[in-house]
Amino acid sequence: MATFSVKDIAIKGISCCVPKDVERNIDLDILTQEEIQKFIEVTGVEERRIATKEICTSDLCCEAAEKLIKDLNWQKEEIEILVFVSQTGDYILPVSASILQDRLGLSTNCIAFDVPLGCSGYVYGLSILTSMMKTTGIKKGLLLAGDTISKIISKTDKSTLPLFGDAGSATALEFSDGAEFSFDLGSDGSGYKTIIVPDGGSRNRINNDSLQIQTIEKGIERTSCDLVLDGMDVFSFGITQGPKTVNKLIADFKIDKDQVDYFVFHQANMMMNKMIAKKLKLPAEKVPYSLKNFGNTSSATIPLTIVSELKEAILNKPSNIIMCGFGVGLSWGTMLAKDCKIESLELIEL
């Protein structure tokens, strides 16, 4: 696993945007009432925000970015790098980051590129953005992270439909003397089939069979263009790798765990996350959750949890925050934002 630190770059603000439409798990007809109650008990997910056909991930991130830029009173021409972390871009090509650079009215001198990661994507995105800003001398940058996973999920798959929601986020990063990030990143591609959309890429192009509905088991029907998630393998990976990467970060950078104000994990599901927290012996008050109202929003779960659950606790207050993402890839990323003083935390709807 790669561990490294980046100094003199800080998070100045985070804005998240969720769709207005709410889908309650209790209203789903692909599950019995008994199954629904069991699902909610295990995952903690009661409702999710679902994007309409017209709304893409880039739209949610664009709205979040516009709100954040306005709240921070930034000048758009000062933003010199934009990174878009998502598995649900507008097109196979071009990258959505280039389109967002134009939509946001940023300078043509702005670096813009996509990172197609999910669960660990927010931490990876921060590591890339902070590193590039540090080495190039760029003073201001934007990390846009989010997904509309509902667009790649079968409506007749009870194993995934009730779990995932849609959201987009924007995080503003700025040069700040004395600020510091510490990272631990890793990947294990031997588990790439654990979370996968089999068809639609260059390996398996869409063909006549791709859109044929397959019955996997009772209550689980999907095509080869829909998301496949091996729940048991994901659970095993999460409860093993989650604590391992957090402990490695703490050990390598000699972090006093008691001095960490909050541990914000990727919102996979409640049972998994609580087991990770238990293994790490973390106080419940230091581990926030946003699963109840938003579900698993992929690369947006960490920023969404921060703005929805921690605004009153950390806004304009220096805080030590460990963030940890793990999942698709398989991959993981954990980071510490030291003495992080965030000036803007907002949640809006589209």
TrEMBL record:
Residues 113-189 form the Beta-ketoacyl-[acyl-carrier-protein] synthase III N-terminal domain. The keyword Transferase applies. InterPro entries: ACP_syn_III_C (IPR013747), ACP_syn_III_N (IPR013751), Thiolase-like (IPR016039). GO terms for molecular function: 3-oxoacyl-[acyl-carrier-protein] synthase activity. Residues 254-337 form the Beta-ketoacyl-[acyl-carrier-protein] synthase III C-terminal domain. The keyword Transferase applies. GO terms for biological process: fatty acid biosynthetic process; secondary metabolite biosynthetic process. Keywords: Acyltransferase, Transferase. This is Ketoacyl-ACP synthase III.
